[in-house]
């Protein structure tokens, strides 16, 4: 058994869904279980219409709902024979009516509560799973829609519910395995779940990867495929370096560092259930299925290159905090982090000296409040428009001289902060945002002069 998860852009239109059916068909012998996201930007559209309803813009909200219904009907009808169009309309009418009732409730209340956010946003995946299962059947793939809310049982923390694993795993076995043994392809919506009392919840934005990992672990799949619209993990952003290469295999720890520092391919914490159960994850491009993607595995991947990839995260601010009180006072760091924690502002990178601390944040929304509190016991300065450039690779940990090579390569670039994470898989530099592109290019040239063919693909665009 394998789990195949298709993200929003992979199921955004009739053409995209037809491609997905082809991809699933080629894997039938491996007994696929399919997890789908909502079509295209449906989740965002549902959230926006809920906000509009709450803000008194009821007509606009209903107009958005109408056009969302139309989009589903237009795209799915293209894939179904005429005799199924009546069924399609009935399913859509019923769902649209329920969504309209919800919008009306939100409008009456004047508030889009977390519970109604989940109720409304769940419709994206509820619809896509149901309709895509119909399309598969029309294409001759024997499919069965499974309401993921009957499988993924969660706590009641709306908008970011946590799965109750043992119940979810037994439900997964109970609901999915019999279908697979009848040679059916179960199709579930990602992102959604329900509490033990049957109240709809969601796992948080981007939660469909999490669903795939949970289902994979629950049914002991041999592989989880995450189909998206990129070729996988790249040695760096191909927009910055033309000769960027696809990384064929990477460890989970490396992928986690990359994601943390800017690579947007996936959110590794959502893959934990799979990694803990030693299930390899493949990130693949549904537009270019022939490209092999990236395999993410639990164990380290041996590689003759010192690093696997370079990440770049822009929009970062440095906060410099200098103690105005006695030197070496204990509790200085505690007071600092307590303030950031109270303001729910995450800190990415940290460098300390005896009397000062520099750290970076990527969300300045509550920075003014943070600075005000910090100024009670320190001098504070903020530098906006910075970027974190990170080199990531397991070999950094046991190879001397990596930092020297990186610094050598970065000659001419003003490095504002340096940090080697405790995992020792990464070495990060903060540079002015304007220098980030050059820094990535210089590091890529230094560390990927040649590339281990076992681990890296040929560059998509050959170097000139
Ligand atoms: N549809 C949800 C979202 O847009 C979940 C997902 O696609 O992973 O966040």
**Biggest sheet, strands in spatial order?**
3-5-2-1-8-10-11-9
Could you describe the largest sheet, including whether it forms a barrel?
8 strands, mixed
Number of strands: 17
Which cofactor or ligand species appear? aspartic acid
Shape: globular
Report on the structure:
- The protein is an alpha/beta fold.
- The chain has 2 domains: 2-229, Carbamate kinase, CATH 3.40.1160.10; 309-447, VC0802-like (2-Layer Sandwich).
- It is 39% helix and 22% strand.
- It has an 8-stranded mixed sheet with strand order 3-5-2-1-8-10-11-9, sandwiched between helices.
- Helix 2 (42-54) packs antiparallel against helix 3 (58-77) and helix 2 (42-54) runs parallel beside helix 4 (85-109).
- The mean pLDDT is 93.
Chart the SSEs and their pairings.
Elements: E1 2-6, H1 14-26, E2 32-36, H2 42-54, H3 58-77, H4 85-109, H5 114-138, E3 143-146, E4 153-154, H6 165-181, E5 185-189, E6 192-195, E7 200-202, H7 208-218, E8 223-228, E9 249-251, H8 252-260, H9 272-276, E10 281-285, E11 294-297, E12 309-323, H10 332-342, E13 347-352, E14 356-361, H11 367-374, E15 378-392, H12 402-409, E16 415-420, E17 426-432, H13 433-447
Parallel strand pairs: 1-2, 1-8, 2-5, 3-5, 4-6, 8-10, 9-11
Antiparallel strand pairs: 6-7, 10-11, 12-14, 12-15, 13-14, 15-17, 16-17
